Amino acid sequence: MTSVDLSRTVLRAVRRAVDDGVLRVAVPERVVVTVPGAGGWGDYATNVALQLARPAGQPPLRVAELLRPRLVGLDGIDDVVVTGPGFLNMRLRDSVSADLVADVLRHGSRYGFAPSGAPGGSDGSSQVLLCPGDVRSVVVTDVVARLLRAQGAVVRARCPDGAPGGAWTDALRVDAALFRDDVPAGKSGPEHPVRVRRCSGDPLVLGRDAGRWALLHPAPQDRVRLGGEHLVQRESNPLFRVRYAHARARAVLRGGSDLGLRPLPGDTGAADAELLALLADHPRVLRRAADTRAPDRLTRHLVAVADASLPLLADVLPRGDEKPSAAHRARLALAEAAGAVLAGGLSLLGIDAPDHL
């Protein structure tokens, strides 16, 4: 279950309370579901009771208590606890997290992609990206096209200044075919401009992977930094953390194989709730990054997945005389799922995900 799915479930509980006459409010279009904060409990939390309290004319705690019994048992929700001023904290059944990990493993690095053959748009026309010819715009356009294609779209690009070329397009692994057949203006429906702040330096000084990351990680309006911080093998470097987390995931899988330990999705405990929530949110992040033409959303998401993965990866395999258990197999499956998401995300960014680092 993703956070989007759970948001719909919460809305259904609100609708039931309204239908039962215990709440007199307009059902909101959406509610926010997040990982519990400090003092929270369970796998997910929502502030919907605080959101509805004023229009309902009731205290948030009362609204939360009215919604609680209507949430328990819905779509794999095992229990609900009210904390603080009226936050609803939800614990999912173990099978739900196991199903999520199994879903990631089933799709591998293509988890979050649209099903093969999905239509690219309601009118069947190509999406045309209008791209200036500077290096950052071209690399961002290249990744936006990858993201859109992963969602089933047919994508072409048009550069008013002519198709880009030169050593930097090859060195930065830009898909030349995206620009090769220049699209005549107005021939394929509305154009979607890719707007980013231009890069004033030469990203080739960083090499392909670090150069692409330097161009893609900042928000569109932010300045690109091309310093050596993108090359250092330290925790201060977000790209290093992402690739290191992937390499560590591959390493624990190799270690598990040496021990005859097979990944098997199952309950990994509440400590991994943040990582599970991030994995569940990955399809939404890909869709949002594609729709908004903002690859930096994906880069930040990958950093969050890496940071949530690293504590798990240090405690996956049995230690000393400890015998392999179902918990070890479940953690190994979660590690494999995290590695798959990191590999798939880096691939969409055009960046290698090495097994050894």
Automatic annotation (TrEMBL):
The EC number(s) this enzyme carries: 6.1.1.19
The keyword 4Fe-4S appears for this protein: no
Highest taxon, organism lineage: Bacteria
Protein keywords: ATP-binding, Ligase, Nucleotide-binding
Database matches in InterPro entries: Arg-tRNA-ligase, Arg-tRNA-synth_N, Arg-tRNA-synth_N_sf, DALR_anticod-bd, tRNAsynth_Ia_anticodon-bd
Domain DALR anticodon binding intervals: 242-357
Catalyzed reactions: tRNA(Arg) + L-arginine + ATP = L-arginyl-tRNA(Arg) + AMP + diphosphate
Positions of the Arginyl tRNA synthetase N-terminal domain: 8-92
Annotated Pfam families: Arg_tRNA_synt_N, DALR_1
Statement: the UniProt record of this protein carries the keyword Plastid: no
MF-aspect GO terms: arginine-tRNA ligase activity; ATP binding
PANTHER family: ARGININE--TRNA LIGASE, CYTOPLASMIC (PTHR11956:SF5), ARGINYL-TRNA SYNTHETASE (PTHR11956)
Designated name of the protein: arginine--tRNA ligase
